[in-house]
Design a protein that fits this description.
37% helix, alpha+beta, three-stranded mixed sheet, 15 strands, 15 helices
Length: 468
Amino acid sequence: MALSEENLWKKSATEVVSLLKRKEISPDEALDANLKRIKETHSSINAVVTICEKRARHQIKNLDTSRKDQPGYLYGLPIVIKDLTEVKDVKTTYGSKVFEDYISSTSDFLVERIEKMGGVIIGKTNTPEFGAGSQTFNEVFGYTKNPWNTNYTSGGSSGGTASALAAGAAWLGTGSDLGGSLRNPASFCGVVGFRTTPGTIAHGPQNLPFNDLSVDGPMARTVKDIALFLDTMTEMDYRDPLSSISSDKPYQNFINEEKHKYNIGITDDFEVLACAPEVRESVNHAEKILLEMGHNVERISPDLSESENTFQILRAHLLATDKRELYKKYKNILKEDLRLNIEKGFKLTEEQISKANIARGQIIKNTNSFFDKYDFLIAPSSMVAPFSINEHWPKKVENKIFDNYVSWLMTAAAISLTGCPSLAVPCSITKNNLPIGIQIIGKRRNEGKVLNLGHKFQKHSNNYGITP
């Protein structure tokens, strides 16, 4: 191998794919380097919880050579998959004791696409039970820790993927996002996560194929790598009724385009939410960077004042609908927070659900009006910095006290309601040397434009942190 395993894991996904493409390293050598790094970090962070090396070796022997000229082709790059997403012949636990020994008989549409595009699935990453919660722990695999400081959480629910990326135990990985599960762990671990417009990434099969609150998405260390992975993941798929094409050219082509001065709105709390002081300072830092980049920046945001009640109702209704049969069979096994949220959904009235859907419609109208005047909205990825691994969720932020594990996520969840693409990028470091990230939010179907600003922001701030 031309490069030592000691150096390979430190390189970006884009760089490693180039090495694979030029045959300076082989897919087996990339796999060996990745497995070695997973082994080195696992006891500390517990991020990649299931390894499928034999399957990966088989994939390498059967790489699809017919697509090599297609943008996003990965040439045998190892990929980690969040443990909510099924991979054929690999354990998929959903972070639940109910599925502790379940082996998937089929792969998710997204996994099929990644494999067709030359990605090699190396393992599954940890998640809270059924993705419910933004602190990654469960009774099957335990806690996933933050590589920056293992006394702190990696966030969630894509905390396993975020932690693996930050520790160099993955180059690219998948996540999913209902109320911030891509953006929150990206912020906590100093990596990048992208919640795209619903339908951009096909996934399924699903019990609720028209659910547009939860989406799958890419995670990586850099925005440039996100663009590469998005080209890998996106393709029109008739099996997903929401599947669509949002760009007429590769997402990687947007990265280095020169753009004129943007009009950008920025907020730390949408004028209705709590926000920890260090996070407010991070938003101030982001504003300074954007001004240095030459953009017009104004403290303003769309009216999202009804977002919390709306999201809480629609989320509970979604969980109750999707998990009804599971709840009937395994009520006493499910973790308390998840069980209570499902029960909340059972108690909702038709009037409450109807009003929440109408309120969401108004939120979308408000956001559309905002984007008639502004190119982007900047906000924190989370209202708090990473917190103790021993704390399941923050109970108080500033003067607001939370009695549930969803309210403190509303900085990200409010944006989920809008259907707008939101890219979480690293921004600053706390006094405890832990990352804080921001969201770059754009108009629906404008993923390329969001990637462009995200790449320029990351390049200007030189924020490419990877833990030792």
